[in-house]
Amino acid sequence: MDTSLSNAKRRKVIDIPEQTFRTLSVRAAASGTNLKAFIEKMLVDYADNADDSHLYAYLCEKRPEGKDMLNEEETRSFEDWLGL
What we know:
This is Toxin-antitoxin system protein. By secondary structure, the protein is mainly alpha-helical.
């Protein structure tokens, strides 16, 4: 069974204002697709175009353990894992 992350999907129920629902429904119809597929594509496009510097700044603030330097043994282990 393939459980690669690229094929993994997450489900999330969201609440949106009625006017937003109508607007997105019209835009989806104009694009020749249904609302669900239209919203999914918009979200994927948004995530794909995210500025890495904003993501990095957020992670540095919220997950500072990622800034810890590795010791020599950890560096070797990581490089071996990468096949370097």
